[in-house]
Amino acid sequence: SVRFGRWVTGVTALAQILLLGGLIVLSERQMRRRVTAETDTRHAIERARLIVETVREPIAVIAADLGLLHVNRAFAQFYGLARPVTGRLDEIPAWNDQGLHQRLKDVLTMQRELWDYETVQRTADETTRNVVVSARPMKLPDSADATALLTVSDLTARKKGEEQVLELNRPLSGTVARATGKNWLRGATSDGREKFVLDLLSL
Q: Which residue(s) pair with 153 in the sheet?
């Protein structure tokens, strides 16, 4: 009886030790998996940041109050900001478009997307630039707060090119119209009145 009781106690103790050992092994495996997952996530975030930093297009991540959470190098250079950038987007002098502020708040609060909002900004080099702003909601892995990814495209060179083409085409269009009118009337007046009509056109 006593021997049996000791045997039961020993078996129970051994079972507890085995169970504890199993729990320790399982806990270590879960910890290793979590560390590996966290490391992979951290590496992915670092790669994403490197990609964003090398993009020439100004990019920013903004909060619900238009606070700047992150900007890439191109954004800081474009608006003459010292990094790390703090403060709010609407505190930057170039970002004084109240209509754009409201659109961005709609993106953040109503989960809408903003595409190709065209506006004029005066940037760090004191140049007036035509830009297009786009924004879309995004979720950060370490926060549940509303955030949005904002991009800026500079259309100034393209706009100037379009204006130059229009300026060149304007007198050319007038010349073509006058020449077309004269040719039509010359063909339509086969009698002796051609000179009279052309003289009228030259007035």
A: 132
